[in-house]
Amino acid sequence: QVQLVESGGGLVQAGGSLTLSCTASGSIFSYNSLAWYRQAPGTERERELVATISPHGSTYYADSVKGRFTVYRDNTKNIMYLRIDGLKPEGTAMYYCAIPDYDYWGQGTQVTVSS
User: What contacts 66, CB < 8 A, 6 or more positions away?
Assistant: First the structure.
């Protein structure tokens, strides 16, 4: 059983920065692609894919975050990070990490951006 735990969220002013962390238990973390999603307030909004990173570090970013978000990982520590720069109010959301191939999800960490 794999557990994913996100941390690092909080209340930040627009233009500020945060680094989110996703810590995992279990051996499959190092061998799988990982992803960050976010879900904006309101239950009707679906989770938006923000970024992915392959086991060897290849990355993908949604157009809406390119240039401001950086995803990276440390396989020796089973941790994935999401560096967010230039936060915008529309970035207010619950941020989740996931191992998509296994449909494993964390509980999320809240990021709130004040204008």
Answer: none
Tens of pLDDT, residue by residue over 71-103, are 999 999 999 999 999 999 999 999 999 999 999
pLDDT for 5-58, tens place per residue? 999 999 999 999 999 999 998 778 889 999 999 999 886 678 999 999 999 999
Cβ atoms within 10 A of the Cβ of 57, count?
10
The two most distant CA atoms of the chain are separated, in Å, by 41
Instruction: Give the integer Cα–Cα distance in Å for 57 and 52.
Output: 9
- pLDDT given at position 50: 97
Torsion of CA 106, 46, 51, 90, to 10 degrees: -110
Length of the chain: 115
Provide CB contacts within 8 A for 80, sequence distance 6+: 21, 22, 24, 34, 36, 53, 71, 72, 73, 74, 97
